[in-house]
Amino acid sequence: MQMTISGLNIVTRCRSCDGSRRRAMTIVELLISLVITGLVALGTGAMMVGVSYGTTSKTQMREAGVRLKAVCSRLDAALRGSKMILASGTDYIVLWTADTRADDLPNISELRLIERDPDTNAMRGYEADFGSMTDTQIEAADTQYALTSDFRSVVNALKSGSLFPGTVWARHVTAFECTYAGNEPQAASLVNYQLTVTLDGMSVLGVESVALRNH
Questions:
Q1: How far apart are CA 178 and CA 99, in angstroms?
Q2: 92: exposed, middle or buried (C-beta count within 10 Å: 0-12, 13-18, 19+)?
Q3: Given strand 111-117, what is the order of strands in its sheet?
Q4: Where are the domains of the chain?
Q5: Is the pTM of this model over 0.70?
Q6: In angstroms, rounded to a whole number, what is the distance separating the alpha carbons of residues 214 and 83?
Q7: What is the reported pLDDT for 101?
Q8: How much is the CA Rg of the chain, to the nearest whole Å?
Q9: What is each CA distance from 140 to 96, 100, 130, 137, 144, in whole angstroms?
């Protein structure tokens, strides 16, 4: 009897121990599950952030490309329709659009300045606007310039007055430069230019060559 009772007690204790072990394993498994779930959630979150960033970057790059195409199209048309490059340098070019007065010399009404503002990254085009002036007044105001003139200084002086207003052609233009064969811009019939548009840190570069048809 005592042995049997003792044996029963032992059996009872062993069952109790087995139950504790089973409970302990369940807690460990739960902790492991929680850790795995956390890792999966962390990985999914990182993946979603990466996808979101990639989508935003593509959108910004596409928008910058659209802006670049628009300003290049306008610049191409201006260059292609011009008679002569009067001056050029980093961030600007001065064009003789046409000899409308047929006097073989550029007048204010025939000048165009295309310039990038390095402070605002805006590109502007400047042309003469005589407003409501009479023909007589326009004739007096439409100054004629020798081809040997310093046209950079000429257009800078005109910009400070009311006869040569500027209009914004594009924004976010972070670089603009024109080059041509030879040392004399007035002899060039082909213009090469590079123009960069940057939008939210995404930059796109346009490189173009344009022939002056009226040269």
A1: 23
A2: buried
A3: 84-89, 92-96, 111-117, 122-127, 166-170
A4: 63-211
A5: yes
A6: 5
A7: 92
A8: 37
A9: 19, 16, 11, 5, 10
Query: What is the SS3 string spanning the chain?
Result: CHHHHHHHHHHHHHHHHHHHHHHHHHHHHHHHHHHHHHHHHHHHHHHHHHHHHHHHHHHHHHHHHHHHHHHHHHHHHHHHCCCEEEEEECCEEEEECCCCCCCCCCEHHHEEEEEEECCCCEEEEEECCCCCCCHHHHHHHCCECCCCCCHHHHHHHHHCCCCCCEEEEECCEEEEEEEECCCCHHHCCEEEEEEEEEECCEEEEEEEEEECCCC
Nearest Cα neighbor of 83 from 186, 181, 178 is 186
Look up residue 70 and give its amino acid: A
From CA 101, how far away is CA 131, in angstroms rounded?
Answer: 19
Give the range among 2-6, 24-28, 86-90 with minimum mean pLDDT.
2-6
